[in-house]
Structures are given as C-alpha cells and as structure tokens.
Amino acid sequence: MGSYQNQRYCLRDGPGASVGLEAARAYLRFDHPEVNLRENYLEAVGAVTEQLRRGVPVEKLLGKVDVPKVYSSLRLFEKTSLEEKDMQVNRACKDALKFFIQKDRSCANGYNCFSCCHKKGNM
C-alpha cells in the first residue's frame, strides 16, 4: 500500500513481505560503535512528542504527507518494542501515538483511519 516511494523505502522483512517486524527488530538491535539507531529513534520520537505536547498540530509539525508515515512507524516500533520487551521504546511510541488518535476525524480524511481503528480496537 502507499505510493511507489513508500513501498520502496518502508521497513519490510524481505522482498514481497507485507510486514516489517524483523526489520524493526534489526533496526533497534543494530550495533555499531559510531551509530545507535535505537537511541536515534528515541531522540526523534521524543522531539516530535515534545512539540506535540506544546500544542503544535500534527499536520503542521510533520506535514500532511508525512503524518501517515510517522504514524505507521510509531505503530510498527510500538508493536516490535512490546514483543522485544523494550519498554523505553514502547512507552515513547505510545506517548507519541496519543497525539495521532483524533476521535473527531472521519475516514474520508485520507489518513489511515485513525479514529476507526481506535474505535475497533485495532490500535
């Protein structure tokens, strides 16, 4: 799903895979003396969450095109971190996701049906 570029650059477990749980696990576990992807992700999510807490609207902060991408990333890493028992990443994702769930949005908004998924318990 998504645009050609979304499909090309999204985290997936391999060619033709529809999920990216293994890829997300590998991202969080990546070990290199000069790069800590897990810490970078936490820093980025923390910066986004801080701005959202200050009242900056999601669309203004991220841009309308990137809102669904960030939302998908947060959902993927929230699920992966729970399975990996990485509660720091899990909490950071959950804290950020609170700002993406807006009950007054309708499916017609072009997003990933945040409010519908939330109501159906798919969040």
From TrEMBL:
<protein>
    <submittedName>
        <fullName>Uncharacterized protein</fullName>
    </submittedName>
</protein>
<dbReference type="InterPro" id="IPR036287">
    <property type="entry name" value="Rv1873-like_sf"/>
</dbReference>
